[in-house]
Amino acid sequence: MTQETFPMTEEGKKRLEAELEDLKVRRRPEIIERIKIARGFGDLSENSEYESAKNEQSALEGQIAKLEHMIRYAEIIDPSAAGEDTVSIGKRVKFIELPDGEAETYEIVGKAEADPFGGRISNESPIAKAIIGHQVGEKVDIETPGGQFTVEILSVETA
């Protein structure tokens, strides 16, 4: 069985590393302190502050483990490896939905970096899957759970 990798840009990996550092250096000690204080309130079986802090600690440790795993198995994608006008991870793509939609711009990133509301869509999303490998000027049919539509790629640039 092969290990799943997490395609991402170098910038995306750096953001994950910074988030991991924050969780370990700032958040973890805060929660440990809350647990210590809550222990001082007495009977742990009826101590909601203690229970809450322990639950938060568990969630935090899960997030830390997830980030460490994604960083360990990061596959850094070099956007310049694809042609200058070719859609790939690490590129910003502007396209228009045909026949008369508005132009939209997204950066194609690995799923670990995706933030659709911030204009960063996962390479595993239906839109990205459809347009990756296509070039400026091409018309591409996209199949999504909400239906099918066609876009024309207007521009591609390294993000």
TrEMBL record:
Domain Transcription elongation factor GreA/GreB C-terminal spans what residues?
A: 84-157
Keywords assigned by UniProt, alphabetized: DNA-binding, Elongation factor, Protein biosynthesis, Transcription, Transcription regulation
Q: Which residues form the Transcription elongation factor GreA/GreB N-terminal domain?
A: 7-76
Keyword DNA-binding listed: yes
Extract the GO molecular function terms from the UniProt entry. Answer: DNA binding; RNA polymerase binding; translation elongation factor activity
Highest taxon above the source species: Bacteria
Q: What this chain does, per the record?
A: Necessary for efficient RNA polymerase transcription elongation past template-encoded arresting sites. The arresting sites in DNA have the property of trapping a certain fraction of elongating RNA polymerases that pass through, resulting in locked ternary complexes. Cleavage of the nascent transcript by cleavage factors such as GreA or GreB allows the resumption of elongation from the new 3'terminus. GreA releases sequences of 2 to 3 nucleotides.
Q: Which family does it belong to?
A: Belongs to the GreA/GreB family.
- Name of the protein this chain belongs to: Transcription elongation factor GreA
Q: Which organism is it from?
A: Aerococcus christensenii
Organism lineage reads as:
Bacteria, Bacillati, Bacillota, Bacilli, Lactobacillales
